[in-house]
Description:
By secondary structure, the chain is α+β, with helices and mostly antiparallel strands. The chain has 5 helices and 12 strands. It folds into 2 domains: 82 residues, Phenylalanyl-tRNA Synthetase, Chain B, domain 1 (2-Layer Sandwich); 111 residues, CATH 2.40.50.140. The chain is 16% helix and 27% strand. The longest helix has 12 residues. The protein is extended. It comes from marine metagenome.
Amino acid sequence: xxxxxxxxxxxxxxxxxxxxxxxxxxxxxxxxxxxxxxxxxxxxxxxxxxxxxxxxxxxxxxxxxxxxxxxxxxxxxxxxxxxxxxxxxxxxxxxxxxxxxxxxxxxxxxxxxxxxxxxxxxxxxxxxxxxxxxxxxxxxxxxxxxxxxxxxxxxxxxxxxxxxxxxxxxxxxxxxxxxxxxxxxxxxxxxxxxxxxxxxxxxxxxxxxxxxxxxxx
Length: 217
């Protein structure tokens, strides 16, 4: 079972480190076999939230374009990008020169270096999920949904810690995030705030909302 620490925090306050939480769970019989940190290679100053202000054609390559990125501080940055899905107004993940990203060709984590691409200097990158280590998709850039302050470290937006539990048959209560939250609360002395399950009701009959026709009984 993979438990997102950020999801757990929606149900109870957590003020202890993931290692300490994992230790307490394991000692209580809910073994944590692995701790995975999503975004542990993202430097807070080098991998950030940006926004595409404008896109210009590359003077020497039809398949490349030059997006200008608002990075929140200082002057906007223009880089070379070959992704087909970039659009003005998109909120994106931007990596400065010197950031660690995954090389799509070999899958290895490497330092991003500035380069001259078809005659245009580029010192940064609009990142795809693969380059960030968030999946295998390299067909286009990662577009962020939501309202974020430009220049915010990407780790604050997408970073997370995953506890991988190895449950025994006698602990089905921990086969959910909420169930695990109650276990962690018991081990740390915290109180769980369960999700709101209220929903709106009215007196309308279902027939007035949905119609079902059986065409082939």
